[in-house]
Amino acid sequence: MIEMIESKEALEALKMNLKERGNMDTGEAAQTAKEIVRRVKNEGDQALFEYTRKFDYPDMDAFKVKVPVEEMKAAFDALNPDLQKAMQLSAQRIEAFHVKQKQNTWIDIKENGEILGQRVMPLEKAGVYVPGGKAAYPSSVLMNVIPAKVAGVKEIVMTTPANKEGKLSQEVLAAAYIAGVTEVYKVGGAQAIAALAFGTETIPKVDKIVGPGNIYVALAKREVFGYVSIDSIAGPSEILIVADESANPTFLAADLLSQAEHDQLASSILITPDKNLAKEVQKEVARFYEMMPRQNILKESLTRFSKIVIVEDLHAACDLANEIAPEHLELAVAAPFEVLTEIKNAGAIFLGHYTPEPVGDYMAGPNHVLPTNGTARFFSPLGVDDFVKKSSILSFTKEALLPLGEDIVKFAKSEDLHAHALSIQVRLDEEAK
């Protein structure tokens, strides 16, 4: 079910497979997304509703597109009380974590009158895309919306596709109510992304769009980038576990399956120097597989993109983990904080035997919107910084500028920018009179 590999050749094949898995075949889909974006940009609601009627809700019109606040509250009130409590606790923990990320405006004033600083301001409007259909993830609503609220974003606009009857997921609506979404619209796909980016008669234009979606959503986000900011182009889910002899093979097998069940392109990798542990994990994966309802998805992801890699020691395991730069990294080792010092690239790092990846998905507090497909080498988890903009502040008195003037003139002339030099020189000359 999940193959064990040891040779360099097999390891290189795995690395290549992981890289190729993230490369979308975007030919026809890209053209479709581009055309949808173009039409919604130019035609507004007419094109938006046309595509919505075609792909999702056949009776869509301007009177049915917006979800009343009362409907959001009703969805929350009707939740199972235990789930209601769990979602509220999750929201509280997410908020508590992200509050610590907030940055403040600062000013540095020197005796000569020079003032330098940075102004931190929230975006005015943020758009959150939430997938519909069978994949309804209220946890992602909380993770995408709450950092924006903490940042101080005034308006948060959520779009999510309705079913054929015009209904939305109760759990998603309840999560939107808990998180404090300003407006919810029953549109999805590339047409929703275009509506958020350019605005229509019914949907306001936003400054940034966040949230996962299918290939058309991802390609539409690429298309509108520059008109608005976007979070990232999310790839397939992945987990990498570094484990030693102290690990419980039953725990490891369950954790590997927790990501493999997402979709056929999901990747679950175990790296360990303990071959006996690897064999036990193989057995446990096979045993759990027989109990799982999503076997068609599991079989594909476990066979194509999941492996157990045998390495010489934990140092080698960490080197390989850094090279892969996984979305989720579990350190299932006896001394996880020691091993942590060797980790450079990972979206989120889960330390010890009782910190499985799902605790981060739902309840821990750190964001579960993470860089995928090796982009943890240079990207970070979604957070408060994604919903603010920063302006530099500069103020110089004559006394502050003059000592720097000659150096600025020389620098500008070295770049052949003589008007830049002139801007400073005229001030120096004025003082010399």
- Share of helix among residues? 40-55%
Tell me the Rg in angstroms.
Answer: 26 Å
- Provide mean pLDDT, rounded: 95
- Mind summarizing the main beta sheet? 6 strands, parallel
Quaternary: single chain
Low-confidence stretches: none
The number of helical runs is 17
Number of E-type strands: 15
Terminal Cα span? 85 Å
Structural class: alpha/beta
Query: What is the approximate shape?
Result: globular
Could you explain how this protein is built, in words?
- With 433 residues, this protein is α/β, with parallel strands linked by helices.
- The protein contains 17 helices and 15 strands.
- The strands form three sheets. A six-stranded parallel beta sheet has the order 1-12-11-10-13-14, with helices on both faces. Strands 2-7-6-5-8-9 form a six-stranded mixed beta sheet, with helices on both faces. The chain has a three-stranded antiparallel beta sheet with strand order 3-4-15, with no helix packed on it.
- α2 packs across α3 and α2 crosses α9.
- It is globular, with a radius of gyration of 26 Å.
